[in-house]
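User: Hey, quick favor. My workstation is busy. Could you predict this chain's structure for me?
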Amino acid sequence: MGHLSSPRPPRFWLLPLLAAPVLVHAWEPPVHPVQAQRALQGDPRLKSDALVAPADADLAAFRAWLDVRFRAHPDPKLRDAYVRRAGEAGLTPALLKALLGVQAGRRVAGVDDARDAAGTAPEIVALGAGQPDLDQRHQDVLATDATGKPLVLPDGRPVPGDPLQANLGAATGRVSQRWAHDGFADVPVSADPELLKADGRRHAVALGWPAGPVKGFVRENVQAHYDLAVLAALWGGRALSLQFFGQALHFLCDAGDPVNGVQVGARDLFQAARLYTWERSLGTAGGFLGELRPLDESMLALAWTHRQLADALTARRVADSLAGKELPESARALVPALTVDDGEFRKDIEMAVAQALGRMGKKPYVPAAGVVASRLVDVASRDGAEVLRHALGASAPRLHVPTASYDPAAEDPDAALGDVGQPDVKAHLDSLYWLQARAFSRVGTAVRLVHSRYQGDVAAAEDAVREERAAAFAEAWLAARVAALEAREARVAAFVKDPPPAPAAVHSLAWLLIPPLLLLALVAAVVALLRRRVTAEEPAAAP
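Assistant: No problem, here it is.
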């Protein structure tokens, strides 16, 4: 490695970070460092010696080291695809960000610089665990032309960097990063809301881009950042490796957030959205006397509001716990749960990894981190509907309509609750925290298993073994990332060629006719009733 910058003193930033207003995604950025820190607390393999931050020259040297291996890829087609993109410049920060699918204009930690990667190993890992949200790398990712100018549709709408973003929210704004942090179970899905009765994971609406599926890439991001962590360690950059490893843990924690595994999930949310839509349809005469939004859009908006509220409440209770505040038993269970293995879940993961190892044989590369993430998504998503149902049951009535919104960066989550003195509201709140504590236990279990795998992959070995391992990880990383980039580009081309219609208000002739028909029916019923009374009161005819 090249010259390193001077070390920085240890930072005690967890509590201030938890108290700060932040952009929210999953369990909120401040929660991820706590999850990583507590899950690995006391692990002797994370040594307490202070490390210095890599300088810009070190990052350039690491990219050059990767570039050599990428250009030597054994697959000619893949090698040529990389060389066409890299040219003489090699693996630049811009190309590395393109391969990772992150926002080209953002400063991305570990890619553009690693000035924060200083301190002890636990501190750097915890820091890295918060970075994928804090640097907003997956927010506002837009497609660009050859000159780097954002692409727009003829009607002025921006083209998302991946059209699948549109099916999880929008091309811009906080919700635009969901595609990179969410993950859905491998189950058949349909837009039929009846599926919400049995399994909320099976309901999905391709609202923004009907031509594409509803898909999240959290598994892929776990593996991509894990592989970079191993490669950085094999290159010789321990601090950089720990930072990338922390970032991999960020996505692993996202995989364990129940609400990241469902789009709507809870039937209660659908019913609330449907009731609002009916009321609004009646009040606007089917959209002819006022704006009427589609039911699916209202349903997704309501789910997004309560997803944010559930995560903000969890983050607040984690902060309160670390500050030593008095909490109910359900909320007190959150932080300690990170240190306790979920035994059944651990067995499930170990079996899944063993099966992957069996399929791969004795190859130096096994995508174990992605396997763990997949199992975590599958199990965690089963609780997604219940978390959202309890969030709806605990929230204030003003949030029970799709037009309401909750801004976690500006609003106190406790102020968005209903009357917690009411037994039903308190029961919903307690149930939400118990579900999140169970999720925290699974996350802690997964973090420790992935960390053990990481320690084995970066363990010191003979030069020949290290080189073989570095080549295997570099080849696998490039193959996965080029395939992902080409798939995104193909989806963008399809999106531009046949763009979805712009969102539009609903105009329903049926609802325009319903009010007068109801009035006519009422008048007819009154007339019929009056006639019956008149007939009943008429004297019987004389014989």
